[in-house]
């Protein structure tokens, strides 16, 4: 699935972290906001889709964009792994890592859309989970997996950028 023409737009907006897509239409074409008066989630129409995360006034937000490529041995990979491989872009793609205090997120293109993965406890490296997928970074290597299908995973590698180091 191609992820061409879609760019992740990440910006700081006052005291909120904003993650979204410029000009990208989603199936619902709506964002969900919290209604403080009644405590219920309400659908709100937006022209640009964004996820707003309120932060304390003194919070510092870190951001790192890292390019990756993924490949697998077609002869050795099973059908489930080959199918999972189509969930990420075929060529080079960018993952954005965001951090604020104890919160860490990874924003990456999965199944032709932008997904936000949250950091979870891992024995080694930095593991992020979103929906049924996991993105587990260890050094210059990442394992992308389906959490609901044990053993279905493949590896991606950092595309080295001149003069930059990677810190997930």
Automatic annotation (TrEMBL):
Signal peptide, first to last residue: 1-30
Domain of life: Bacteria
Keyword Transmembrane: no
Keywords (A to Z) from UniProt: Lipoprotein, Membrane, Palmitate, Signal
InterPro entries: MliC (IPR018660), MliC_sf (IPR036328)
Gene3D superfamilies, alphabetized: 2.40.128.200
Residue intervals of the C-type lysozyme inhibitor domain: 92-151
Keyword hit for rRNA-binding: no
Pfam families named in the record: MliC (PF09864)
Protein name as catalogued: MliC family protein
Organism, as annotated: Bombella pluederhausensis
